Structures are given as C-alpha cells and as structure tokens.
Amino acid sequence: xxxxxxxxxxxxxxxxxxxxxxxxxxxxxxxxxxxxxxxxxxxxxxxxxxxxxxxxxxxxxxxxxxxxxxxxxxxxxxxxxxxxxxxxxxxxxxxxxxxxxxxxxxxxxxxxxxxxxxxxxxxxxxxxxxxxxxxxxxxxxxxxxxxxxxxxxxxxxxxxxxxxxxxxxxxxxxxxxxxxxxxxxxxxxxxxxxxxxxxxxxxxxxxxxxxxxxxxxxxxxxxxxxxxxxxxxxxxxxxxxxxxxxxxxxxxxxxxxxxxxxxxxxxxxxxxxxxxxxxxxxxxxxxxxxxxxxxxxxxxxxxxxxxxxxxxxxxxxxxxxxxxxxxxxxxxxxxxxxxxxxxx
Length: 344
Description:
CATH topology: ABC transporter involved in vitamin B12 uptake, BtuC
Helix content: over 70%
Low-confidence stretches: none
Structural class: mainly alpha
CATH architecture: Orthogonal Bundle
CATH class: Mainly Alpha
Strand content: under 5%
CATH superfamily: ABC transporter involved in vitamin B12 uptake, BtuC
Order of helices and strands: HHHHHHHHHHHHHH
Radius of gyration: 21 Å
Largest sheet: none
Oligomer: single chain
C-alpha cells in the first residue's frame, strides 16, 4: 500500500509540474508578444508573426530581428541562469536567503567585467565572447574569498556567517567599483553606469551567442544532478551517511552556480534578487524536490526578467527604467519579508 501511495504521489507531482511549467511557458510566450510591441514603434502581433517568417517590411524585420528579439532572448537566458544559480546555492547551503547577488558573487563578476569593458574595446567579436569567461573568473575568485573568510575550523560553514560575509565582501567590491568609475573617461563611465544599474546592455546577437553555450551546457548538467542536490539538502552528515561524496559534489555544483551567475551578469549587468525570488516562487508551486523544482525555477526566472525588462521600457515615455531597478523594487521587499520570517 505504501509503495502504491508513493507511486500515486509521484505521478501527481509530475502532472502538477507539467501543468505549472506549461502555464509559465504560455505566460512567457504572451509576454514575448507584448515585449515585441513595446517601444517607440509599435508592432501588432500579426506584424510580429509576419516578420518572424520573413513576410514583414524591412523596417519591421530590422526592429524585430536586430533590436527587440536579441534583447528578449537574452532576458529569458539570464533569468533562467540567475534563478538556477540561486536554486543551487539555496539547496547546498540550506539557506532560503542564499542568492548570487546577495552573497557577492554577482559583484565579483561585475568588477572584472567593469575592468574589462573599461580597458578592452568591444568592437570585435572576440572580446564579447570573453566576457562570460572573465565574469566567471571574477565570480569564482569572489566565491573562494567568501568561503575562506566564512569558514571556521570547528564549525565549518554556517549559513549566517556565509550571508554576512557575502554582504561585507559585496560592500567592499562596490567601493572598489566606485573608485574605478571615478578614474574613467565619460564614455567608459557611462557604459559601466549602465551596467551597474542592471540595464540589459548586451542587446545584439553576438551577446546572445556568447551567453548561450554556458546556459545550454550548465543547466542540463545541473538538472542531471537534481537527486544529488536533494541528498545534499539533507545536510552533510546525512548525505555522507548515504554514501554521497559531499565535498566533491558541493564543489562541482557551486562551480556550476558561479559559472551561471557570472555568465549571466556579464551580459545583463547588475541584476539582483532573481536567484532569490525564482526558486522561492517555484518551491511554492511544485515543492522542494529539485527534479521538479529546477525546471520551474528556470521558467520562473525567465518570466520575471522578461516582465521586468518589458515594464522598464513602458514606465517612462522619454526613456526606460533599467531592468535591475524593476527587479529590485520587487525583490528588496521580498528579501525583507523572508528575513522577518526567518527570525520569527
């Protein structure tokens, strides 16, 4: 009877996940068409579909293929990447507040990217394809620094010390970023200021192709490790007792999380809270099992960033609000709510 009940529960969970994922995918498609029609020049859904199949005017196809479509694709990719990155960190640390932005990983990637775009021209394709790699190196160095500072010989890594160390390191990196921006010429300062605000500044296909391999390779790998994340989420002692190579798996999954966050930040700029909100909303929808949680997390993060980018382009008539600011308006109160719940 217990086996039958477990099989029934598994089937119900699978159906629920398919339903939730289908709804999220449908919402992404709806927002896709809304975003296509958002801007100074309006495109109706019929014109969008015609242009997608090469039946639109030259102006419509130029707007669609060269300006709006790359930005939408990038929004979806970075939303999925940042959300999965946060899901991994929350699973490993068993900390509901873990997020690559809050822990300082995004800031570390951002500092290296700021140095890179300030001193290396992005007029050729090669520097653009180096951006995710440079961001990964910066994010990895920051993650290693946070781990070293938060680690204690007797107690190991506690979630509270990890969070506080990440916040402190983020403050230091932000201070270094301010010093850097003061030494730049106006043109480079404007580019970095745009990045810091979380405006999706990489809006051409070469930025899409620079980010795409990281997402396509790492997300399937992390999905493959879903059962391992479930075991690690039980705690190191229990996971070790179940025969899991805890240290090795933690290292590999943290590396994947850092790489996803760094590559996304390289193109998106300083967008925070996606890795916090995405996993939380997905967990409320499909529960904590990573086999079901992570695909829904990816879709939730993609939808969140796509909505934020679309909303940011319609709030002001004369310009646009950076995507990072729109996400922060949602994410900051949610973070404070989670902090209050954790103390209760």
